[in-house]
Fold this protein.
Amino acid sequence: MVLVALTGWGQEEDRRQSQEAGFDAHMVKPIDHDALLRLLSELITN
C-alpha cells in the first residue's frame, strides 16, 4: 500500500510529521496531477 499525505500544510515540520506517521510521501494542495502520477509510479516501482 502506498500512502501519500495531501494537505495544505507544507512546512518542513509538517513533512516530518507525515513521514513519522507512516506516509510514503507528502504533497501540498493544490495538487499537480502529473506530479502525483510520477510520484506514484516511482513509489510503486521501488
Notes: Residues 33-45 form the longest helix (13 residues). The chain has two helices and two strands. Residues 4-45 form one domain. The CA atoms of residues 27 and 35 lie 9 Å apart.
